[in-house]
Every structure is written in structure tokens, then in C-alpha cells.
């Protein structure tokens, strides 16, 4: 038994454990990864209504959380890890070790960086999974998450360098605060050409980075970080020039490209339509899965308009003003208002907004009282506002002028409702022929 134990001990001694393994499974690194995961999940969770269901919105929200919350955390974690030996009083002992400075630095810094990236990867995967089950039509783009992972790793390594150089316990939180302020100011401020070097840029939901932009950002940040690490640890500090040249080339490309780093999402220029209704109903191709819900929400109104003439051809949902025979569909974006997690929040209110757009006169500063009463009757017939009863009750409790207007509106609603189907269709056809007129002369009376 003794011989077996001694043999096993000799075999174990002959296979020394890699120094990265001890750092990766024990100590500060796993806690840093857990902190990254928790921070990002909380940051994404409180704003889930604004991104869940849209791939582009999810990409931008995860990117924003990674840059404004993840990068400061990575800087602070790396800085704290970098000052560990000084706090323990073992810095001079490690300086006499056989292992080189670069190897010793990486053995301490890489586990923290890898755990932080792992926490970010899990948070990103959960966010994508949360959007997948209620996605509305566009598609995910993996370039931005991969570039953000590189930026987070570089932030951790940069923080490690700062932690070894600055002998101050408050260096970690101050470095995190500085990173948050700089990224926030550059990302949301009026960026010049140098602002394109920032890894965080606040871009609208309907744009996407060109395919090489995350790669160039990764080379830019990675080159600067590698140069800083080599300048601190390498015996031949001239080696730091090699990654610095690569960073300079990537930075030049980013600055010269300017706004060309982003392109309009091709899906935003397309729409899908239901041609079985009058008017036809079209939604932007990015949200094509919403078309059945929108069609159902407007079904009551389109059913009442069957056989009516002089209507716009379709509800459209493309950037810019609608065409001469089109009317703009009520807004779907930004997510979190009329649409949450792939569902219309209030189909009745959405139908009312569509009816108001269909009536026109949006450019009229003021309409005649008789025309206002006619418009109210048509609105009430097609898709009344969910708050209409409250408005009527409020006018009933008002002064004489408010009560008189309410009586005029109620009388107009009653006259339109009392018409026969053929008579009502003829009257509505005449009404929609004057949808762009602001005066009282052309609008048919009730």
C-alpha cells in the first residue's frame, strides 16, 4: 500500500497543474464573472420591454449594457486583481520567480478576463433567448457581441496594468467611474471624427454596423491593450510597437470611414402586406410577424369600410412620408409602447390611431366646428377611442360651450348610425373624397 501511494504521489508530482487552472477555479476570477453576469442581467431586465422581441433592439441594448456597465466593471475587476500582490505583500517574492513577467502577468490577468467574458456571453445568450420566442421578423447579427467580448477582455487587461502601476485602493472604483463617464460622453455626445474610435456608439435601431466594423474595433482596442501589456511586462519593450502599429491602422480605418461604419438595415425598406382588406395593411418587414395582429386589430374598421370609395390604397410602414394614395400605419416602434414582447398592448387604441390617420386633416391647424363634429362621428363609427366615454363625461360636466359641442357631436353620431348600409357607404365615399380639406364647404354634412 505504501509503494502504491508513493508511486501515485510521484506521478502526480510529475504532472504539475497549469498556473492558469488554479487562478481560474479559485479566488477572485469566478466572482468577477458572476458579478458581470448579475450586473448585465439586472441592467437588461429593467428595460426588457424596450428590446424583447426585436433582434436589432436586443443587439443595441446588450451592446449598451456591455459598454456602460460591463466595461467599467471589467476595468475595476482587472485593477483590483492587479493590486492583489501588493495588498498581500508578496510582490517582491514573485519578482524573484523563474517565470517571466509577461507569463506571470497573463497567469493572473487572463482568468479574470475570461470569466468576465463568460459572464457576458451567458447574459447575451439569455437575452437572445428571451427575444427568440417572441421575435417579430428581423434576424440577429453576431458581429457586435463578438466585438464587445473582445472589448471587455481588453478592459480587464488594461485594468490589470493600472492596478499594478497605481498603489491606491481607490484606483479600481475611480477607474470604473472614469470609464463610465468617458464612454457615456463619447457615445451620447456630439462625436467628431475621433469619436468613431470609441467602442460604444449610440445608433438608431434601424441601422446596423458594416460587417468589418466589430473586427476593426477589436483590432483597435486589442492592439492598444497588447501594447500596454508588453510595455509593462516585456524585457524588450520595443515589441509593444507591433500591436501599436496594428491599432494605429485599425484606428485610421475607423476614423476615415466615419458614418460609413453604419448602414441602413435593408429590411427597413421593405414591407409585407395583407391585400385582402380595404385599405390594404402593410407592416415593415422587420416586424412581419405582427401583420396578423395588426390586421385583426383593424378588422372592425376595415369591415365597416367595405365598399367605400375614395379611400387610400394601403396603410404603409416605410421610412419617410407616405405616397399620395397611402396613409401611414400607426407607429410600432419604439418597442415598449404600442408593442411589448411581440404583442400589441392595446388593439383598440391602435385601431383608433389608424382611424384618425385615415381621416386625414393632420396638416390642418384648425377645422370648422361642423367639420369637427363630422370627423368625430366618423371616428366613432370606425374605431372610437377607448377614452371617448371619459371625454364625453368631462364635456357634460363642463360649461355651456362644452355641452353644446357635445350635443352636436352626439347628434352627428346618431345620424350616421341611423343610415342604411348603402346610404352610409355613399356618404362615407363622399366624406373620404374631402379628407385633405380643412374648410367646411367640401365636407358632406350630417
Tally of helical runs: 18
Instruction: Kindly state the percentage of residues in helix.
Output: 55-70%
Percent of sequence in beta strands: 5-15%
What's the Cα radius of gyration?
32 Å
Main sheet: strands, sense, barrel: 4 strands, mixed
Query: What is the H/E order?
Result: HHHHHHHHHEHHEEEHHEEEEHHHHH
Q: Give the overall pLDDT as a whole number.
A: 86
Number of strands: 8
Strand order of the largest sheet: 3-4-5-6
Structural class designation: mainly alpha
Q: Flag low-confidence runs.
A: 1-5
CA-based shape = elongated
Distance from N terminus to C terminus (CA atoms, Å) equals 107 Å
Subunit arrangement of the protein:
single chain
Please provide a brief summary of the model.
The chain is mainly alpha-helical. Helices cover 60% and strands 6% of the residues.
What does this structure look like?
By secondary structure, this protein is mostly helical. Helix content is 60%, strand content 6%. The protein has 18 helices and eight strands. A four-stranded mixed sheet has the order 3-4-5-6, covered by helices on one side. A two-stranded antiparallel sheet has the order 1-2. It has a two-stranded antiparallel sheet with strand order 7-8. Strand 3 (271-274) and strand 4 (280-284) form a beta hairpin. Helix 4 runs antiparallel to helix 7 (101-132), helix 8 (143-165) runs parallel beside helix 10 (213-233) and helix 14 (347-359) crosses helix 15 (369-382). The longest helix is centred in the first third of the chain and has 32 residues, at 101-132. It is elongated, with a radius of gyration of 32 Å. Mean pLDDT is 86; it is low at 1-5.
Amino acid at each position: 500500500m505504501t509503494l502504491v501511494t508513493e508511486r501515485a504521489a510521484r506521478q502526480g508530482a510529475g504532472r504539475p497543474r497549469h498556473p492558469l487552472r488554479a487562478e481560474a477555479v479559485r479566488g477572485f476570477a469566478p466572482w468577477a464573472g458572476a458579478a458581470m453576469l448579475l450586473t448585465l442581467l439586472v441592467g437588461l431586465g429593467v428595460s426588457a420591454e424596450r428590446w424583447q422581441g426585436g433582434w436589432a433592439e436586443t443587439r443595441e441594448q446588450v451592446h449598451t449594457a456591455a459598454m456602460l456597465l460591463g466595461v467599467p466593471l471589467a476595468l475595476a475587476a482587472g485593477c483590483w486583481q492587479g493590486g492583489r500582490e501588493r495588498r498581500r505583500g508578496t510582490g517582491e517574492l514573485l519578482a524573484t520567480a523563474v517565470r517571466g513577467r509577461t507569463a506571470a502577468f497573463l497567469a493572473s490577468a487572463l482568468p479574470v478576463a475570461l470569466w468576465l467574458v463568460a459572464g457576458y456571453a451567458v447574459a447575451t445568450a439569455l437575452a437572445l433567448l428571451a427575444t427568440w420566442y417572441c421575435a417579430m421578423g428581423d434576424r440577429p447579427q453576431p458581429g457586435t457581441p463578438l466585438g464587445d467580448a473582445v472589448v471587455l477582455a481588453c478592459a480587464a487587461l488594461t485594468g490589470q496594468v493600472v492596478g499594478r502601476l497605481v498603489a491606491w485602493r481607490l484606483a479600481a472604483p475611480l477607474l470604473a467611474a472614469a470609464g463610465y463617464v468617458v464612454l457615456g460622453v463619447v457615445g451620447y455626445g456630439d462625436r467628431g471624427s475621433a469619436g468613431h474610435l470609441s467602442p460604444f456608439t449610440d445608433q438608431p435601431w434601424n441601422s446596423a454596423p458594416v460587417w468589418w466594423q466589430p473586427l476593426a474595433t477589436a483590432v483597435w482596442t486589442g492592439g492598444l491593450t497588447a501594447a500596454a501589456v508588453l510595455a509593462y511586462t516585456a524585457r524588450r519593450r520595443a515589441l509593444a510597437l507591433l500591436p501599436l502599429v496594428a491599432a494605429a491602422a485599425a484606428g485610421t480605418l475607423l476614423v476615415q470611414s466615419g458614418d460609413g461604419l453604419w448602414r441602413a438595415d435593408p429590411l427597413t425598406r421593405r414591407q409585407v402586406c395583407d391585400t385582402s382588406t380595404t385599405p390594404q395593411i402593410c407592416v415593415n418587414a422587420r416586424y412581419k410577424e405582427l401583420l396578423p395582429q395588426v390586421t385583426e386589430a383593424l378588422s372592425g374598421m376595415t369591415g365597416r369600410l367595405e365598399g367605400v370609395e375614395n379611400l387610400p390604397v394601403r396603410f404603409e410602414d416605410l421610412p419617410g412620408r407616405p405616397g399620395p394614395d397611402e396613409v401611414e400605419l400607426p407607429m410600432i416602434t419604439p418597442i415598449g409602447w404600442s408593442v411589448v414582447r411581440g404583442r400589441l398592448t392595446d388593439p383598440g387604441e391602435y385601431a383608433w390611431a389608424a382611424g384618425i390617420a385615415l381621416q386625414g386633416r393632420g396638416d390642418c391647424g384648425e377645422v370648422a366646428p361642423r367639420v369637427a363634429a363630422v370627423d368625430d362621428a366618423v371616428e366613432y363609427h370606425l374605431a372610437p377611442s377607448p377614452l371617448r366615454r371619459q371625454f364625453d363625461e368631462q364635456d357634460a360636466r363642463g360649461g355651456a360651450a362644452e355641452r353644446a359641442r357635445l350635443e352636436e357631436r352626439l347628434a352627428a353620431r346618431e345620424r350616421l348610425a341611423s343610415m342604411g348600409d348603402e346610404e352610409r357607404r355613399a356618404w362615407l365615399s363622399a366624406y373620404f373624397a374631402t379628407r385633405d380639406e380643412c374648410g367646411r364647404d367640401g365636407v358632406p354634412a350630417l
